[in-house]
Amino acid sequence: MANFIGTAGGFQEERARKRRERFLLLAIASLSIFEFVLGFLVGGCNSRHSFGFVLAAIVVMLLILWFFRRADRRLDKEARLIRNDEKGADGEREIIPYLKRLPDTFTVVCDLNFADSYGNIDHLVIGPTGVFSIDVKNWRGIVTPDGAGELLLNGRPTDKPAVRAFTARTMDFRERLRALTHLDPFIQCVFVFPHTQVDAKWGTTGNVHCINIEKTAEYIQNYRGKTSISDAETARLVEAAKALKSLAGK
Fold this sequence. Notes:
This protein has helices at about 10-45, 50-95, 95-100, 160-180, 215-220, 230-250; strands at about 5, 105-115, 120-125, 130-135, 140-145, 150-155, 155, 185-195, 195-200, 210.
């Protein structure tokens, strides 16, 4: 079984926790404003009506309706993002049994996250066949190339350019590895899909390969990359990745 460093899903879970806090604060703020406006209007109804009060009440009601419309949209968006983060964490954990099928000559570093980077790397795999940056996409449907190096989900573009963002994260991490080891390893980017039909041939999605989760161990063990790494280089890369993981956890 492969050697593991760290646990999966931590970055997504932490992001979901922060989103839940923002969701709660926004809901409390909305309720407080509603109670304030309600008190203002009730207090005004108990006093002598005047043209100024009626005009002010109308203005306040229009403003509060505008605010609640914006708040409702924001709450819906935050709730959707929370669900996405939680599903992402589930996907990162779902791949673990498949990575465990790798022999002990491979090391898996889970959840590499740097505050000054583009985001996290779900799993970094280092072994005799090379170095692999794995991003688990817990999408549903059919994944196809868009003809320009990006992905389509069910025939539609994704919210963000997934291939470009993933490549940028991996290249950033590669620079950190190179600074520590003075090696220049090629890192193969891999999108792994647990619940998606993948119809994206290699070469149609830039430097990122797209595979189903069941093929993960087979893909890594049979990979024939551009360059090979020696046992000594593998050990240096693993130690550097462990050090970077430790820094990322602070």
